[in-house]
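WARN retry 2 of 3 for item q-0093 after timeout on previous attempt; input resubmitted unchanged.
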Amino acid sequence: MARVPYRYIAYLALGSIIFFTAFSGLPVSTVIPLEDRTADGAASADIKVLGTSNVHDWSMEDKDVSCMAHFTYAAGNNKIPAALEALTLSFPVHNLKSGKSGMDSKAYTALKAKDGGNIVFASTSSIILPGTVGQFKVRSKGNLTIAGITNPVVMDATCQVVPGGTINCTGTEKLKMSDYGIKPPTYMLGALKTGDALTIDFTLVVKK
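OK item q-0093 returned
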C-alpha cells in the first residue's frame, strides 16, 4: 500500500480541527423565544367574599378590582400560555358591598378600613398545569394582605382561552378571619354572630 505523504495527513488534521472548532459551539437545539402577551385587567376582575353566621350566610362583592396578569406564549402557539410571569390583585375594603349598609359598616371596621386597608395579593411564582380540552390551570404562590397582615397562600385558578385570545380565570380561596387578626363581627346586639371562615371567589378576565 502506498504511503500517504505526511503533508496530506497534516492538512487533514488541520481541516478537522477547523471544522470542529467552528461548529462545536452551536447549540444542539435552538431556543424558541417567548412572545409577550400582557394584560392590565383593571375593571375586569370580580371578587366575592362569602361568609357564614349563626343566622344565615352572607356575601360582599367588588366588581371593579385592579389587577394585572402577564402571560407568555411560546412562539407559534397562541392557544395555551407557556407561563404566568406576574399576577397582582388589589382593591380597597370600602369597595366591597353587601347591599346592606349596616353590615358593610361592621365589616369595614373589622377589616380596619379606616387605616386605608387594601386587600392585596401578589404572586411570587406561578406554574401552568394541564386541564381539560381548551382549558388549563394556574397555581400561584404569593402573599395575601388583609387588614394589614400578610400571609403566604397558594391560589388555584381554572382558565380558558376564548376566541380573540381573552383568558377567563376563576378560582376559590378559603381562609380564616383569625389568621389576619380579624375578630368576626356581630350584629343586632350580638344576636347574629359571623363565623371565622371566609371564602373568596374570584373571576379574572385577561385580555391580550
